[in-house]
Amino acid sequence: MRLHCLVAISAFRRYSTYRWATVTGVFVNSVFGVIRCYILLALWDTNPHIGGYDATDAVTYCWLTQSLIMTTGIFGGSGVDEVATRVRTGDIVVDLYRPVNLQSWYMAAEFGRSAFSLLGRGVPPTIIGALLFGLRFPQAPLTWLAFTAAMVLGVVVGFSIRFLVALSGFWLVDGRGMLFLINTAGTFFSGFMLPINLFPGWLADLCYALPWVSMIQTPIDIFLGQESAFDFARGFGTAVAWAAVLLTAGHLLLARATRKVVVQGG
Amino acid sequence: MPTGVRADRVSHAQRVGLGLSGYVMIARMWVRASLAYRTSFVLLSLSQLVVTGMDFLVILILFSHTDALGGLRAPEVFFIYGSSAVALGIADMLAGSLEAVGQRIRDGSLDSMLVRPIPVLAQVAADQFALRRIGRITQALVVMVIAIVVAPIDWTLAKGVLVVLMVFAGSGIFGAVFLLGGCFQFVAGDAAEVSNAFTYGGDALAQLPWTIYPKELLRAAVFVLPLAFINWVPVAWILGRPLPLGMPPFMAWSSPVVSAGFLGVAGLLWRIALRSYRSTGS
To answer: Residue A104: helix, strand or coil by DSSP?
Structure first.
């Protein structure tokens, strides 16, 4: 456990080194935040209560999606994506030699990375959004606690999806196509492009059943305090269930991949 | 120079010719390389198509909740979406690689381009030329053609000519933004992400009607970075609506001029940036 904490801390440090990348990232997220806000506001202007949101909820939703991009790693940027490259180059052998489980090692690193992303890439756009548009922040401390728990679950689900994709590199050699596919699916099914409440019923049901919802829509709905007891249980239940299933799958697949690996050269 | 031949004494026209033929040569090489893996090429083109299709799906979902966005109806918004996406697609295919110049500056491989007898700009722009981006252009073009047929527009010859001019001018404006992004990377190590805010961000902006944005944003899109001339200004006239910011109707034809001027400024800055380049090596 102590080792994993150290891994997490060094991952945090690693990502905090790139200060200008963080600043430019915040700038880009904020530009998109502004544009997408006006798009949503144009819709709410014609129809003020779509999907149970009012205009302030929609604006808050929009800025939180920008803040969660890096925190839960919806487009990637996660350290675990390196595993695929390391498989291709053969560096993975070094990882497999370590007396630590590969999955728990990268998960610890992912927690460190997303903790930095929350501070460096998550908080600033939220503040900018609040200054420009006025967002709705939760009042009850318990809501903040639940929001944090939902974000942590989002990070775990995101990690476990990407870990599986990275392991596919053991079989596909070039895992870039797979990564592209998973990023695209995540962008749409997580509710990043639009709140899932706006989707037609069947599509919304599908999204709520898929794992990506835990990375964007579930934490934001908790933040907006809109949840009925049912939504709340469904959100956490979906996240925990997917995390368990995907982590187990990752564990099993890793065992198979390890047995399969053949190292070239001396 | 050993003999009396001055290699730098090439006329301007010759340089342009060299640049174009060099560009075509390098692009053709990359196309041939990518077609060597046919399955991968088809899959990547299809995925490009799906990704840009998602933007369109969002617009469709928006219109499932309302009849009009910013006072414009669905086919009119499709026209706006298509005209911006086609322009970005063309610019991205022809000049999108300028985004990667930062990588070449950092690893020093820009140096090898400086000694080749083809203008550096042509080499950088054609680098990693990706024909698969045709997927994005096709998707956007289909939407645009459907919108042209469905939208309530009284077509005249002038409007038809303007549509064609608009696509070229829009691609030029996006191309200039890519070029400016490339220039900026000479100053700020790896800032490829900043140009994303203006290329893909510009596309996100221009995909929807100008009427949903506040005046300050429109002013910025006219006077700071001329993104409004990609499609908004000509489209407003074609749709028979008042032009953004109360511009007179003849301004609908100004896009090609703005585009050429903007490209000129960006090209000048590129020269300055390239001249200021000092290699990384020791």
So the answer is: helix
Is A86 within 8 Å of A145 (Cβ atoms)? no
Candidates B236, B240, B229, B234; CA nearest to B211 is B236
| Contact flag A36-B58 (C-beta cutoff 8 Å) | no
Domain boundary assignment for chain A: 2-260
In this structure, of A83-87, B237-241, B274-278, the range with the lowest mean pLDDT score is A83-87
CA distance A180 to chain B (A): 8
The token pair at A262 is 């053949």
For residue A188, the distance in angstroms to the closest alpha carbon of chain B comes to: 8
Question: How close B34 comes to chain A (CA, Å)?
Answer: 14
**Residue B68 — φ and ψ, nearest 5°?**
-145, 140
Q: What is the ipTM of this complex?
A: 0.87
- Å from B205 to nearest chain A CA? 6
pTM of the model: 0.89
Answer yes or no: are the C-beta atoms of B203 and A31 closer than 8 Å. no
Cα separation, A210 vs A32, whole angstroms: 26
Terminal Cα distance for chain B, rounded:
24
Cα(B169)–Cα(B228) distance, integer angstroms? 11
Q: What is the pLDDT of residue A248?
A: 96
Query: For residue A129, what pLDDT band results from cuts at 50, 70 and 90?
Result: very high
Q: Which of B193, B203, B230 to mutate to test the interface with A (most CBs of A within 10 A)?
A: B193
User: Among B54, B196, B214, whose Cβ lies nearest the Cβ of A28?
Assistant: B196
For residue B25, pLDDT over 90 is answered with yes
The answer to whether the Cα torsion of B200, B201, B204, B210 is positive or negative is: negative
In DSSP terms, which residues pair with B73 in a beta bridge? B68
Q: Which residues of B touch A (CB under 8 A)?
A: 40, 43-44, 47, 50-51, 54, 57-58, 61-62, 64-70, 188-191, 193-194, 196-198, 201, 204-205, 208, 212-214, 217
With CA atoms as reference, report the closest residue to B245 among B274, B270, B220, B279: B220
